[in-house]
Design goal:
478 residues, two-stranded antiparallel ribbon, 6 strands
Length: 478
């Protein structure tokens, strides 16, 4: 392995790891804000107990997300300095706004929310958690704007003297056509993931406490979480359809790789299962649904979808085959076909299964029912994991399907790596950071399990301020 391999593995591991926390943070903050709003409006203590119970779990997730996100920023200077130099003039503005506006909004109002119980007016207090959620949306928007520019560069000019991309239109960067479909798709997926976390935890807790008075609290969490999960799942499907059409327009090779579409077709069939040659140049066996790919890619059952082989020739004519050319790629401008193909299907498949299970849980818990059987406990464990893993496969597809480009049409990944970093240094940082993140994973899972087992606090309306009470103020009690 050379320095590029180590750098790519490190970036992939850290990015996917960090993104495990992001959708839960966005989705869970919205659900918690909804719970507290319901309590303020109705005075029903069940809503307050759910607010504080999931508030604890939200804070654990938020803290780990911040820690892992810091390393994410430093990676650009560690292993990708040439990339940072090239995109710095474009990325500087959206990432600075994300840090100075969005993150400060989140952290400031989260602090007010944590320490404002019994100190702020209830309506003002619930406004704080809504501000936290709005901050997460701002943060996601500006980060996705930067990522969308990598997928479809707009609003810039290339300076040949400095070898950098320079921003010329900030509005074009913020309202990139890829951004306008990626943001709602990502946020809907985050709502689905946060709601799945609520359903899974509540469903497990309800079955564990089936003869307890607390069962009604968790039953409420199951019903509301499952409803949000289903609605968000519909949003994911609709926004994903728009996203696929825009992707076909700006990155046709990614769509071709997602379908293992080797030859251009009109109309094109959707592949349920495909086996190709090891070099990714030829299809050997496939199970297909007629005309479905044309509809997904173009909105018409007779639409033309370009194939990998035709696009390879087109890209080579556009970007060159000479190793000395600025855009040259030894991969021939074709991403890893198996990774693109299967990550796309796992993204969709796991999301659909998760939504189906949410509908099943919503059905079996109607009329205050509590299902019986070990298989329901396995469903409770699977529910939070399915959309979470689907999110990860979605990002694997998004980033791997763009390869070999770091910035589509402008800079390859091989050209982005730091020239002064050795393979030993990159390999060492990969091993060290992976081990550190493994320790953080143990801490995260341990804390989550501890507070899930402890359950919702019994009476948060009249808190006991003794030192050992779980609802004492100015402590980790939310």
């Amino acid at each position: 392995m050379d320095v590029l391999d180590f750098a790519r593995w490190q970036f992939g591991i850290i990015t996917v790891y960090h993104f495990l926390f992001v959708p839960i943070t966005i989705g869970l903050s919205a659900v918690i804000a909804g719970y507290e709003t319901a309590w303020v409006r109705t005075g029903n203590v069940k809503w307050l107990r759910l607010t504080k119970f999931f508030g604890k779990l939200f804070l654990i997730n938020f803290a780990l997300g911040v820690v892992t996100g810091i390393v994410q920023e430093f990676q650009f200077g560690m292993n990708w300095s040439d990339y940072s130099r090239f995109v710095g003039d474009v990325f500087g503005a959206p990432l600075a706004i994300e840090g100075l506006l969005a993150f400060f909004l989140e952290s400031t109002f989260l602090g007010l929310w944590i320490f404002g119980w019994d100190r702020l007016n209830p309506k003002l207090h619930v406004a704080c958690i809504w501000a936290v959620h709005i901050g997460t949306l701002f943060s996601a928007y500006f980060i996705l704007a930067a990522n969308s520019w990598m997928q479809h560069p707009v609003g810039y000019k290339f300076n040949p003297e400095t070898g950098r991309a320079e921003m010329t239109d900030f509005a074009a960067v913020l309202f990139n056509k890829v951004q306008l479909v990626t943001f709602p798709h990502t946020i809907m997926a985050a709502y689905m993931t946060g709601a799945a976390f609520v359903v899974g935890v509540s469903f497990w807790s309800m079955m564990q406490r089936r003869n307890s008075a607390d069962r009604a609290v968790y039953h409420l969490g199951v019903r509301t979480g499952a409803a949000v999960m289903l609605l968000a799942g519909i949003g994911v499907a609709v926004s994903g359809d728009f996203s696929g059409k825009v992707m076909t327009e700006v990155q046709p090779m990614k769509m071709a790789a997602a379908e293992a579409q080797y030859e251009s077709e009109q109309p094109a069939d959707f592949s349920l299962f495909t086996i190709g040659t090891p070099d990714g140049l030829e299809e050997k066996f496939a199970i297909k649904v007629p005309k479905l790919l044309s509809f997904l890619a173009t909105g018409s059952t007779d639409g033309r979808v370009e194939g990998i082989n035709q696009l390879r020739v087109q890209y080579q004519e556009t970007y060159g085959t000479d190793p000395g050319a600025r855009y040259y790629s030894p991969e021939g401008y074709v991403p890893n076909i198996p990774v693109s193909y299967w990550s796309f299907r796992f993204m969709i498949g796991l999301g659909v299964v998760g939504a189906a299970l949410a509908g099943l849980v919503l059905f079996v818990t109607r009329r205050e029912k509590t299902p019986v059987g070990r298989h329901w406990r396995w469903i409770a464990i699977a529910l939070p994991l399915l959309p979470l893993v689907a999110n990860s496969f979605g990002w694997l597809f998004t980033e791997m399907g763009r390869q070999p480009w770091a910035v589509f049409g402008l800079m390859t990944t091989a050209q982005s790596v730091s020239p002064g970093v050795s393979a030993f240094e990159a390999g060492t940082s990969l091993v060290v950071l992976t081990l550190v993140y493994a320790v953080l994973a143990v801490v995260e899972v341990g804390l989550i399990l501890k507070y899930v087992k402890a359950g919702a606090a019994p009476d948060p309306v009249t808190p006991d301020h003794t030192d050992d009470h779980p609802d004492r103020p100015l402590a980790f009690a939310y």
